[in-house]
Amino acid sequence: MTTPLVITVMSADKPGLVESLAQTINRHGGNWLESRMARMAGQFAGILRVDVPNDQLEALRVDLEGLTAQGINVQVAISGQADEPQQRTLQLSLVANDRAGIVHEVSRVLASHGVNVESLETECTPAPMSADLLFKARALLGVYPQTDLDALRDALENLTDDLMVELQDAD
Q1: pLDDT band per the 50, 70, 90 thresholds, residue 80
Q2: CB–CB of 72/11 below 8 Å?
Q3: pLDDT tens digit sequence for 63-75
Q4: Helix/strand/coil (H, E, C) string of 33-79?
């Protein structure tokens, strides 16, 4: 039997960081199933899903916590496979002039419509014809069948005059 884990990692970026994690997981017979990792502003952050033999769970946890001596901060959570209501997956793309609070405004609208943010990527880039910054977001959303997609789109578009919204099936 194995135990499913979700592990989060945060560290100053440096060569060998992923190898240190992989070596520790491998030493305990863990199976690295999936991950999302990125370097941003000199920091490295990641989240990964691992299966580990039940008899190695505590030893793995101790060794992962020991990575703090190398400046690698790790948190381990046992993952459940709870039954969740069926959701439709949508892809959301947003573009607007950048301003403070835009992520808060968008996430408030999504939450008020019962939408689950499954993944989110944001960036600010220079506008093509000016030095102004454009905010761009791409997200995968979990939406229940009863969600009114027209009302969701309208609520997002009504946040500001310059917000362009595209919602489409992710499948």
Answers
A1: confident
A2: yes
A3: 999 999 999 999 9
A4: EEEEEEEECCEEEEEEEEEEEHHHHHHHHHHHHHHHHHCEEEEEEEC
Nearest to 72 by CA among 162, 8, 25: 8
19, 80, 91, 104 from 37: Cα distances, Å: 13, 22, 20, 23
Q: 101 is written with which tokens? A: 């609070």
Q: Are 117 and 139 in contact (CB under 8 A)?
A: yes
Output the six-digit token pair for 152: 């969701």
**pTM of the predicted protein model:** 0.81
* Nearest Cα residue to 47 out of 71, 77, 70: 77
Identity of residue 127 = A
Three-state secondary structure of the chain: CEEEEEEEEEEECCCCHHHHHHHHHHHCCCEEEEEEEEEECCEEEEEEEEEEEHHHHHHHHHHHHHHHHHCEEEEEEECCCCCCCCCEEEEEEEEEECCCCHHHHHHHHHHHCCCEEEEEEEEEEECCCCCCEEEEEEEEEEECCCCCHHHHHHHHHCCCCCCEEEEEECC
